Amino acid sequence: MPVLVTSGQVCRHSTAVRPIWAPPAPHRYQSGTGAGWRVGTAGHSCQCQSQHSGGSGIAPVPASSVSYRAFFWLVSLLLSSLIWFIAVKASDPQDERLQKGLLIFGVMFSVLLQEAFRFLYYKLLRKAIEGLVALSEDGCSPISIQQMAYVAGVGFGLMSGAFSMINLLADALGPGTVGIHGDSQLYFLTSAFMTMVLIFLHTFWGILFFHGCEHRRWWEIAAVVIMHLTVSGLSFCNPMYVGSLVPSYLLMAAAAAWAYLLSGGSAQNLRRFLLCLRSGASPQPGS
């Protein structure tokens, strides 16, 4: 009866040791045998994740989840674009102040709509996992919420980055010269760096958002929404790119550290990982 050292759980169906992200308190049931926590969802309890990857002991993460999350992002973009388009057409195009206000409104509304669809996607995933638990033989889901949070964040970020760059790449084909009127000639370079930070941020935000939903920590969800609004609002500092890029990368570093800690990471684990890289050895599971 090997012990999963990464989560403090006892695995009774598998001899492989691998990390498991325990569900929130309402879904936990303490065993009376001193074996730690048993994981249960929707009235089911289990003590490990079954092996669904050919005996490797690692549950597979479906790559199709990336496309599903990208679809949800596209729907949120479509709705926000439609509302902004109607607002612009119904307003006076000669009023520059009004048009700028509508642009700010469109950006903020789009952010809130994206986060609403992120929550909707979480609810659908939770229902899907409960269905997998009900259908599985051992009463365990082959995929953890933590894995789905990471994959969902990647899908959100990749689609967001693709749409951020598609118009820039189209303009890069010409005609015209960047900076011909005295503007910055680093427009495309800074746009690429901004797109990169958004892709990483969406990945980290997915982990933070799902963790907040799982543990009912609404302040974590609010923090994700505030960070998203802040990064989007910083884009209005352009073409003063230092005012938008530097704070965005600082927020990315903070979100990365936060997501790492919530995923079970620690400074000791990071130090051991760096030592393994320096020595050329492979880190052992649970070390």
UniProtKB/TrEMBL annotation:
Membrane-topology annotation of the record? Multi-pass membrane protein
Q: Which domain of life is it from?
A: Eukaryota
A Pfam family of this chain: Aph-1
Its predominant location is membrane
Transmembrane parts of this sequence: 70-90, 102-121, 148-166, 186-211, 218-236, 242-262
Q: What does this protein do?
A: Potential subunit of the gamma-secretase complex, an endoprotease complex that catalyzes the intramembrane cleavage of integral proteins such as Notch receptors.
The record's subunit annotation is: Component of the gamma-secretase complex.
Q: What is this protein called?
A: Gamma-secretase subunit APH-1
Q: Which organism is it from?
A: Zonotrichia albicollis
